[in-house]
Specification:
698 residues; mainly beta; disordered N terminus; globular; 20-stranded antiparallel β-sheet; 32 strands; binds copper (II) ion
């Protein structure tokens, strides 16, 4: 689960240039109307407080203002470093929920940015809150020693250059008959395996040292010969037995574990060049039913607000359903929170591989530009995203920003029969054809691609589906079978490649506000109620979840959960509600004392419930990278606050046990996992009855 744009650019530019400036910063610089000189004050005036919706993401000018404010402050403070500062993450600070809900257009809104500041040479991290309009730092806090933000784009490129320059690495490649210049280096967060004690004792920051671990794959052709139309896939050709650990503070290779040599498969990974099936492009739906106004979306009865967060990716806010001209709140904020991917093979070169793809890599920053007829239908509408470059303003990128076009896609698609009935006397049918609205984005985390769909339906349901594709993390294989790593490929020489078993756990944070913020949660189960003559009778039970905590799925009891309004009743005298309904399931096979599973408490139980608290956004905590103790949900629930008539947050974990198969090689077909948020007593009847009959004239 590693690597990113920093190495992407090696396909197009020599490595020396790659290290100096990422692909995206070049795009950004090229797209600027009038680039300023490095160090210039921004040409635009400081953003005013009145032009924004409170949730509008930071603009390019605002990001630049934050970067220059922080840099100026560090320059003028005696005790703070002046050089080598990077910015792993910056986003608008979540405004107070009550303020957002009460906000009226035109009303001034605070513009406060939260920014992480990393100083690699001294291994220090600060969190700053910057008031953008006044260019003031409101708060600057040095984080505890050992705090490590996600990997940055420039670190991907830097680690690659450090590894390639290391004589031990070059010798290890040559001893395998491989040209080191044709080797692709995949940069990973180091996982939860401590450095060997001797190594740790020999370096200034010991176990707190910021490290990355690098894997190697055989590219097989010089970078300058690569053809953009036929992108190579080095991930199909693992060079097994080598893990390079890099000290990102000292900028040098710390150790190379060269445990064994296995043959490298000669598969090209380019089978898709041989087109055997021709498909027609999708025909756009003719309607303009999707109304996108800035970040605000209206589609039939649904309305919500969209933005792409640099860490969480797509955030959907203030979700409402227009029910008989009454705009009824359903959710305040819906987002991806964390992903945990443990590998199941008992091999020292693999045991540290347990990725936290959101917190270790900032999944939102790795969003990809969506392309019509590739990622989305040709009818899709798009929203761009703008992020800070982790390097801040530079000569090549004076604004210090990165613009990602078409990061969010929004489109309508057919959904088959919406509802149907037949008159039993006349045989006449009354049927409606359905459509659904998809808000989508995808993130590219090295070999893997996750595509996230939030699907809004005319019947009031929100389906949350994630597609998983890309390339499995492959392993050089011997002829004999190996536990936990089935063979998935074979070249003409009879060399095999294997793909170790692994799991994906995705936690979604669902701040539901069903008919307002005050809600309560119930656990529903189906139970048999047999009696003589009624041996297939069953009923439901309902248990109030009165305190913060977690629950496990139980398919045998059809266990699911209701989030109900504490203030609204439906016509049947029951609280209006939405249900969380599990779909695909996976359970972790890690031991409970496994360090990574302890950090991924969200993977141990599927349904978590907390009281809404500002700042609680991440299921494995704010800084899971190299974290030495669990944070996030296991901490949030510790005080077991009572939950009746409170603002609740649901955290739901969906999982996938990936038992690799030959069909996953050289590129995986999309697999899809998810869950549903379904109205259950929220409406008085089927809300999709009023949909027009498109087939009436035929
Ligand atoms: Cu997988």
């Amino acid at each position: 689960m590693a690597n990113a744009h920093g190495t992407h650019n090696q396909k197009r530019w020599p490595r020396s240039m790659a290290a100096a400036c990422s692909l995206l910063c070049l795009i950004s610089a090229a797209s600027m109307a009038s680039p300023a000189k490095a160090g210039d004050k921004p040409a635009a005036p400081a953003p005013t407080a009145t032009l924004h919706h409170p949730l509008d993401p930071l603009s390019e000018a605002e990001i630049h203002t934050v970067l220059t404010t922080v840099l100026t402050s560090f320059q003028t403070s005696r005790d703070l470093p002046k050089q080598s500062l990077t910015f792993p993450l910056m986003a608008l600070a979540d405004p107070a929920k009550a303020f957002v809900l009460a906000w009226k257009p035109g009303q001034p809104t605070p513009r406060i940015a939260e920014v992480q500041i990393l100083h690699n040479p001294s291994n220090r991290v600060w969190l700053a809150e910057v008031d953008v309009p006044s260019r003031r730092i409101l708060k600057l806090s040095l984080q505890p020693a050992g705090t490590q933000p996600a990997l940055t784009t420039s670190e991907f490129a830097d680690a690659d250059a450090i590894v390639h320059a290391d004589p031990r690495f070059r010798a290890a490649m040559r001893s395998r008959g491989l040209n080191p210049e044709l080797v692709y280096v995949d940069v990973w967060a180091p996982g939860d395996e401590p450095l060997p004690a001797k190594l740790s004792a020999a370096i200034p920051f010991g176990q707190n040292t910021r490290i990355v671990r690098c894997l190697t794959f055989y590219r097989g052709a010089p970078v300058k010969e690569l053809i953009p139309e036929h992108p190579q896939n080095p991930y199909v050709r693992p060079i097994e037995g080598i893990v390079v650990t890099v000290d990102m503070n000292a900028r040098k290779v710390l150790s190379i574990s060269d445990s064994f040599v296995r043959p490298v498969i000669q598969e090209t990974g380019n089978k898709a060049v041989d087109v055997r099936l021709t498909t027609a492009p999708t025909k756009p739906l003719p309607s303009g039913d999707v109304k996108l106004n800035g970040h605000f979306v209206r589609w039939h009865q649904w309305q919500f607000y969209l933005s792409l967060h640099p860490r969480e990716g797509l955030v959907i806010s203030d979700v409402r359903f227009n029910d008989g001209n009454k705009l009824r709140p359903v959710a305040y904020r819906l987002s991806l929170s964390e992903i945990y991917v443990p590998y199941g093979i008992a091999d020292p070169g693999w045991s540290w591989r347990n990725a936290f793809d959101v917190g270790e890599y900032n999944a939102g920053m790795l969003a990809q530009t969506l392309k019509p007829n590739r990622d989305v239908p040709s009818s899709a509408q798009f929203l761009d995203a703008v992020f800070p470059s982790d390097l801040g303003p530079t000569k090549d990128n004076p604004m210090g920003t990165v613009t990602l076009p078409a990061a969010i896609g929004l489109y309508e698609r057919d959904s088959g029969i919406l509802w149907s009935r037949t008159d039993p006397t006349s045989y006449d049918r009354d049927t409606r054809y359905g459509r659904e609205l998809v808000a989508t984005w995808n993130t590219w985390i090295g070999n893997y691609i996750y595509s996230f769909d939030w699907i809004f339906k005319l019947d009031g349901t929100i389906a949350v589906r994630t597609k998983l594709t890309g390339t499995t993390l492959n392993r050089g294989s011997l002829q004999q079978a190996e536990a936990s790593a089935p063979k998935v490929g074979k070249d003409q020489r009879g060399v095999f490649v294997a793909a170790p078993y692994h799991q994906h756990f995705l936690n979604f944070r669902l701040d539901l506000d069903v008919d307002g913020p005050l809600n309560q949660a119930m656990e529903m189960e189906v139970v048999p109620v047999h009696s003589k003559g009624f041996s297939h009778a069953f009923d439901t039970t309902s248990t109030h979840l009165s305190n913060e905590g977690f629950r496990d799925v139980d398919p045998y009891k059809a266990r699911h959960w209701h989030v109900e309004s504490s203030t609204s009743l439906n016509p049947f005298g029951k609280p209006t509600g939405y249900a969380i309904e599990p779909e695909e399931l996976a359970f972790p096979y890690g031991a409970l004392d496994d360090p990574s599973l302890k950090k991924a408490s969200f993977a141990q139980h599927q349904f978590w419930l907390t009281r809404y608290r500002p700042g609680e956004l991440y299921a494995a905590g704010t800084f899971p990278n190299q974290a030495k103790r669990a944070d996030g949900l296991s901490e949030f629930i510790k005080d077991q606050l009572p939950l009746h008539r409170q603002d609740l947050v649901v955290w739901y974990t969906v999982g996938f046990t990936h038992l690799s198969r030959p069909e996953d090689y050289p590129v995986m077909p999309s697999d899809s996992i998810g869950f549903r948020i379904v109205p259950r007593g929220f409406f008085a009847s089927n809300p999709a009855l009023g949909v027009s009959d498109l087939g009436a004239s035929h």
